[in-house]
């Protein structure tokens, strides 16, 4: 078993796929190493690649606002992506890239051991829930896989492109808040 620090160091030197060629920084993920909830996006964009941190660009600002709206502190959750290096021109990761990189995410999940996984967008949902996942049809529905409570909602970047999706994302975030509060209360520990 690795520690998060060891894994981050491995990821920072990873050259298992071609995405490493274009990166300024690998974006490992960040947050509470004991988080009960993990948010999983697709992959770094320009700003994330520059800073080496997830969700710090325009979509990240919206994500922060949504967390604030459900009264969850960004520092109390863990945020990661399916791929750790930025795909050129923000294209979707190809299958080989996601399949290779998701091994790091699996390790992160093993180490952090959260109860809830939130897939932000179709790419995360296809990689985590089901390769045929349809975000419009199946967002907002909880599924249980082993110990994990898993839900998918729209990617914040999709909400920036289409305001009409925001009301659905808000419903999903309220549902996420309710499940998260239940789990925090049941565990009897502070988040
Ligand atoms: N979009 C993602 O999917 N992940 C990030 O970290 C930033 C934008």
From TrEMBL:
Specify the enzyme's EC class, one word: hydrolase
Keyword rRNA processing attached: no
**Which Gene Ontology molecular function entries are recorded, alphabetically?**
4 iron, 4 sulfur cluster binding; metal ion binding; uracil DNA N-glycosylase activity
GO process annotations (BP): DNA repair
Cite the InterPro entries for this sequence: UDG_Type-4/5, Ura-DNA_glyco_family4, Uracil-DNA_glycosylase-like, Uracil-DNA_glycosylase-like_sf
Which domain of life does the protein's organism represent?
Bacteria
Q: Where is the Uracil-DNA glycosylase-like domain?
A: 28-174
Q: Name one Pfam family in it.
A: UDG
Catalysed reaction, written as an equation = Hydrolyzes single-stranded DNA or mismatched double-stranded DNA and polynucleotides, releasing free uracil
Q: Which Gene3D superfamilies match?
A: Uracil-DNA glycosylase-like domain (3.40.470.10)
Enzyme Commission number(s) of this protein: 3.2.2.27
Arranged from A to Z, the UniProt key words for this protein are: 4Fe-4S, DNA damage, DNA repair, Hydrolase, Iron, Iron-sulfur, Metal-binding
NCBIfam families given for it? UDG_fam4 (TIGR00758)
The record's similarity note reads:
Belongs to the uracil-DNA glycosylase (UDG) superfamily. Type 4 (UDGa) family.
According to UniProt, the name of this protein is: Type-4 uracil-DNA glycosylase
Q: Which organism is it from?
A: Anaerosalibacter bizertensis
């Amino acid at each position: 078993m690795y520690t998060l620090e060891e894994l981050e160091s491995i990821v920072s030197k990873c050259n298992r796929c071609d995405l490493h060629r274009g990166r300024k920084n690998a974006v490992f993920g960040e947050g509470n190493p004991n988080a009960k909830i993990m948010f999983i996006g697709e992959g770094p964009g320009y700003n994330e690649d520059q800073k080496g941190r997830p969700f710090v660009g325009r979509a990240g600002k919206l994500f922060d606002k949504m967390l604030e709206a459900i009264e969850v502190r960004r520092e109390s959750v863990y945020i990661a992506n399916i791929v750790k290096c930025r795909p050129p021109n923000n294209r979707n990761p190809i299958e080989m890239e996601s399949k290779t990189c998701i091994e790091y995410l699996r390790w992160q999940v093993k180490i952090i051991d959260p109860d809830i996984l939130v897939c932000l967008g179709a790419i995360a949902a296809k990689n985590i829930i089901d390769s045929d996942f349809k975000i419009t049809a199946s967002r907002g529905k909880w599924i249980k896989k082993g110990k994990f409570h898993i839900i998918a909602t729209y990617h914040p970047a999709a909400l920036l492109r289409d305001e009409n999706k925001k009301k659905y994302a808000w419903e999903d975030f309220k549902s996420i808040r309710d499940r998260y509060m239940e789990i925090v209360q049941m565990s009897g520990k502070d988040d």
